[in-house]
Amino acid sequence: MVFVGVQLGMILSTLDRTIVATALPTIGRDLGAESARSWVITAYLLAQVATMPIYGKIGDLYGRKRVYLFALSVFTIGSVLCGTASSITELVLFRALQGLGSGGLGVLAMAIVADIVPARQLGRWLGYQGALFAVASLVGPLTGGVFVDHLSWRWAFYINLPLAVMSAVIVTRRLHVPYQRISHAIDYLGAALLTGALGAIVIAASIGGRTVAWLSPEVVVLALVVVVFGALLIRRERRVAEPVLPLRMFAARVVRVSSLLNLTSGALFASGIYFIPVFMQQVGGVSATESGLLLIPFMFTTAFTTLVAGRRVEHTGRYRIWPIIGSLLTIVGIALLATLTRDSPVWLAAGFGAVLGSGMGFIMQTSLLALQNGVEHRDLGVATSTALLARMLGVTLGAAVLSAVYQARLGGGTDVVAVAEAMPWVYVVALPVAAFTIVLALRLPEHALRDDAVFDAGDGSVVPGLAAASETGIL
What we know:
By secondary structure, this protein is mainly alpha-helical. It has 18 helices and two strands.
């Protein structure tokens, strides 16, 4: 029941991105500011990315249950306000508030599951989690279309309320992790530097190649902000007692490799979920709804192989082989997608997408499992947030860079021939990323999986998992 409760929160975060993306054209027309509508997405993403690592750290320090409920409350309030927005300015501000809550939902959900499930069994539960993410990613655009066509775009936000209430009730009643409040020193300056650097990355990816040129003064300034803030952050985190991003974690190779695997797999995931529908609609001539349905093979294989890998990890206790298999399948899928032409049927593109999706499923959750298993429990929340942040940045940067490649090869053309000739270059550019993913998977170390779940009792000690805690009277 705890798993169901926290997954409802993660599904909310996932659904909201995709539902709103579908409803965005209608929102722009209704509020009379189509030129500013992209900020409805950017404001949410910016707040979400900026707060993810902070939620991870605060959850480690103050207890994940209360922080999760706080994040869920902020997200829900933001959803209600978004549904009542009367101008694009209000909607952008309320979307930022919503993003401030969303930043904690996925991070804390995954960390809570890792708290109460032994690492040996965690692969199976992360497999369920990955399957739910895949389903939510697919259902979102279809649901958004239904709301726009038959109800109102405002229901894209109101739909969050019943799910949020269900999540809050379940987590409040069923999650009982012992916790004792103690004093901690929060690294506010480090959090500000990290937020500034991440914000600059997201804004640069959002406007580069779209609103302004990649080498424009605006993008150059943002790049300098990333470099300066990043350097100051590293210097700061080496000195403080409670760093928001503990650099000692990265001394472990499993953390470095797993984080990079999440970054590259996020970029490759973007090449599938964003560009396969473009090929189907622009070259294959299918509708937006049909292209969404034809994306099912990609999402289904992602979910299915996630479940397979999770089950096998639980059975064998070994995880390293799955990112290796996944990276090999991924490069095959990318190479096949690069062969699509004007005469390629849409079912072939869907089949190639299924190959790519199968590789994604083997990589994403097992690399997260390796990271969670390879860090000290006191760093579990911030380690989880680091992996998910890397994945989200991979999706964001991957979509931005590949979109720039696509637009450059398109050369202003809009007909089927131009699109068919430009599309393969998206996957040609993605091939080196896929090859680097193979190198990373081969570098991933394998450590014995923990057989007991642990959680923070609040005083820095590590307490046995739920079964042992029940026997000793802690719960």
